[in-house]
Amino acid sequence: MASGVTVPAVRSRKVAAGAAPLVMVTAYDAPGARLVDDAGVDVILVGDSVAMVVLGHRDTLQVTVADLAHHTAAVARSSPRALVVADMPWLSYHRSPAETVGNAGVLVRAGAAAVKLEGGRRRLPMVEALVAAEVPVMGHLGLTPQSVHVMGGFKVQGRKADAATALVDDALALVDAGVFAIVVEGVPAELGARVTGAVPVPTIGIGAGPGCDGQVLVFHDLLGLDDRPSPRFVRRYASLKQEGTRAVAAFAADVRSGDFPSPEECYDNGGEG
Ligand code: KIV
Question: Is the model's pTM score more than 0.90?
Answer without folding.
Answer: yes
